Amino acid sequence: MKSNKVISALLGSCLALSLTFAPVVSAADAAQASTDNRDLINEVMNILENYNLSGVDKDTLIRGAIDGMVNTLDDPYSQYFNTEEAAQFEHDVDLEYVGIGVRLQYTATELYIEDITPGSPAERAGLKRGDTIVKINGIPVEETEGDELSGAAGTKVTLQVVRNGVSKSFRVTRNEISSTSVTGTIVGQKIAYITLSGFTQNSDEEFAAMLKKMRAAGMKSMVLDLRDNLGGYMDSAYNITSNFMDKGIMMYTSDQTGALTPVTITSGSKIGVPVVILTNEYTASASEALTGALRDNKLATVVGTRSFGKARIQSLLPMSNGDMLKLTTQKYLTPNKEDFNHIGLAPDIEVKGKTAQLITALQIAGMKSIEVSGDHHILNVNGVAFAGNVGLIKQGDKTYASSLVLGALIEGDITWDAKNKKVIVTNGAGKATGFTLSSKEALSQNGETFIELNAFKKKFPALVWSYNATQKQLKLSVK
Questions:
Q1: How far is CA 344 from the centre of its chain?
Q2: How deeply is 418 buried, as exposed, middle or buried, from its count of CB atoms within 10 A (0-12, 13-18, 19+)?
Q3: Is the pLDDT of residue 252 over 50?
Q4: What radius of gyration do the chain's Cα atoms show?
Q5: Which among 114, 91, 83, 116 has a CA at the least distance from the CA of 102?
Q6: Taking Cα atoms as reference points, which of 168, 297, 317, 311 lies closest to residue 231?
Q7: 132 to each of 12, 98, 419, how far by Cα in Å?
Q8: Torsional class of 15: left (φ above 0), alpha (ψ -120 to 50), beta (otherwise)
Q9: Which end of the chain has the least Cβ crowding within 10 Å, N or C?
Q10: Close Cβ partners of 368 (under 8 Å, ≥ 6 residues apart)
């Protein structure tokens, strides 16, 4: 399971990472610690063991002392793991988990399946993207705590969903899921659309294989989707970057001394085609390093929203007892020496909305004709399935679509006039057109705006649209 709620939680814990491996602390370094301070710690531990009224567990005291030391760093990315926690951490970074293989999307009013992993338990059970989950194990989703799909491999979970207005029940057996970090397809005019969902230990090899496949298919441009990519191993990010540039600076790093050290690529390969990178607020860490490297070296145009802002590198330090310390040991800057920690990288072209971002990226990559179809849950672009939706709303004889999607299709900008309760569409020539709520030409729901399609077509005749009442699907294009 992966959703915006889950992503937000992971960013604050283990997956928003850029990682390197470091050796065990040497005996000589350890011997430099103050004997007096160690004696003081032991003295306090002995007193607690011998005199505390309720008694104490020595292992618990030691773990508490370690956690206390790490917490005093005031660094959300430094963390101590015992053996089991370390193993789970490495599984998380490598996108390995136990579940049913779905990507969920929460809205203000519902929970639905946005995507399903091919070959997953969810797919085998018959679940489909767009299904609205109403109950999990008989409990309404609004009463759940968000982790009901998790559990041990081999256990079962029952989902009640609504599909096209019909309620269905599915019994799904949880299993180990090992997600590939790289997926890709050719869209439209030989545009390679590649999604990089994490930087696992194998991501660089997966990316190289996908790039070879896209070249064989005649790739003329690329859209690299780094949205929701929380990071991972910096070595993988370095190797992937070397597929885009033959030589140059990927980034600068700095340790306790403050001196900047360039990380250079010397034997890479030129990508040779235009590249567009998609980012959002969950593009973090190693994915920001890749974005910064390609942007500053003028190898890519960045589209979307500002990234997360994690410009720090952690080292994994194995302990003598098998535990592991994840410690922030370096910061990194982009090739233009931009320290974006806690700030994020600004896109070259800011676009809000998942579907609008994709449409804009494909247009920049050279797609001349775009047809989007779907409803308020699912999205197809020129017949290819993508994450997102067209924002379909039906009210009587009126059909509405997302204003952001409509704006992207005509290559215009969308703004909201709160005073006059009006959606304003500005075309490429700078002409502004308004759609008001009072006239019912526009709607505002849960912080999003929608425009009635006949009203939009009247003012933007290039729009072509149709609604299939049987499939409850909307098609949109611009001629």
A1: 14
A2: exposed
A3: yes
A4: 25
A5: 116
A6: 311
A7: 28, 22, 35
A8: alpha
A9: C
A10: 188, 189
The tokens for 109 are 């009013």
Q: Which secondary structure element, helix H or strand E, spans residue 93, and what is its range? A: helix 83-93
CA atoms within 13 A on the CB side of 74: 0
In angstroms, the CA 139 to CA 136 distance is: 5
Q: What is the pLDDT of residues 21-60, one digit of tens each?
A: 544 444 455 454 456 678 888 888 888 888 888 878 888 8
pTM for the model stands at: 0.89
- The DSSP symbol for 48 reads H
Rounded to whole angstroms, the Cα distance separating 181 from 158 reads 28
In whole angstroms, how far apart are CA 218 and each of 109, 211, 221, 312, 381? 43, 11, 9, 37, 19
Distance, CA of 112 to CA of 195 (rounded, Å): 21
Q: What is the identity of the amino acid at 323?
A: D
User: For residue 71, what are the CA distances in angstroms to 74, 76, 86, 216?
Assistant: 6, 8, 18, 50
Q: What is the pLDDT of residues 387-441, one digit of tens each?
A: 999 999 999 999 999 999 999 999 999 999 999 999 999 998 999 999 999 999 9
Largest CA distance in the chain: 83
Which residue is associated with the tokens 């609504």?
162
Distance CA 435, CA 443 (A): 9
Write the CB contacts of 207 (distance below 8 Å, at least 6 apart in sequence). 182, 194, 196, 240, 243
DSSP string computed for 335-396? TT----TTT-PPPSEE--SHHHHHHHHHHHTT----EEEE-SS-EEETTEEES-----EEET
C-alpha torsion sign, points 82, 85, 87, 90: negative
Instruction: Please name the residues in contact with 349: beta carbons below 8 A apart, sequence gap of 6 or more.
Output: 301, 302, 303, 360, 364
d(CA 210, CA 185): 9
Instruction: Give the C-alpha separation, 327 to 313, whole Å.
Output: 8
Q: Which residues pair with 394 in a beta bridge?
A: 399
Q: What tokens appear for 478 in the block?
A: 């611009």
Q: What is the spatial distance between Cα 284 and Cα 398, in angstroms, rounded to a whole number?
A: 40
